[in-house]
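Section 3.1: Structural characterization of target chains.
Under the original work plan, the team committed to producing a structural model for every single-chain target entering the pipeline before any wet-lab resources were allocated. The record below documents one such target. The sequence was received from the expression subgroup and is listed exactly as submitted; it comprises 268 residues.
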Amino acid sequence: MKSVKEQSLEAKILKRLENSPKCTELVEYLFSDEELQEMQDYANNVSIKRLGYNDHGPVHMRQVAANAIKMLNILQSSGIQTSLEKEEIGTFEDSMCAVIIAGLMHDLGMMIGRQGHEDMSVILAKPIIERTLMKLFPDNLHKRTVIKSLAIEAIIGHMSSRKIHSVEAGIILIADGCDMTKGRARIPMAINTTPKVGDIHKYSANAINRIGIHHGERKPIRIDIEMSAEVGFFQIEEVLLTKIESSPAKEFVELYAGVEGEEAKCYL
């Protein structure tokens, strides 16, 4: 049974894709995929209960997909081409399909463990990607090849541990970094009370009240972060900013963050 949060995010994603029939078909197929759901649920079990990390399951993966869809739509409305469009090898819709797939599968490797989980995610996601694309594009080997390759680049590059080169993969990198609000840290903070290395990530994420993704003033995408305490700056500077700095989409992003009631700091 899907949680209320999962269902809410699915509705949000479908709303953002209402002008793209093929992308809508894609997410509806993936949302109804029982194997993918089981993998997302188990990845979250390992992450939270076994390893003591924050949410890496179905809610997180849907949130990352939702973030990435919004960012890609902002780029399109700002006249910015995706890598596939610029290289004249695919369409905006192809780019969106790759980003959606990567968003919904990038943390499947947490089923195995934290170390190298981006590599494990590729191995686990590949069969699902291939059967999904065969369902959507049964007569178009070119689209299946391009979208699969781009999705795998985005999955394997989401930790900024590998050099990535496409705008699409860069968007997933940033979208992943943007999911760091207190809701994501709530469960591990409640069930893991023994102090351990890495707790700063949970406490800093718990200080993040809100993250907004909007059209920017100086650049196409503006990210606004509001926090309840200064410990939240750790999450921004050590996680999100690191990902943006490594992203091929960095040039399109402006970033502001601050404690509630105080003037926001401009990072980018």
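The chain is about 60% helix and 10% strand.
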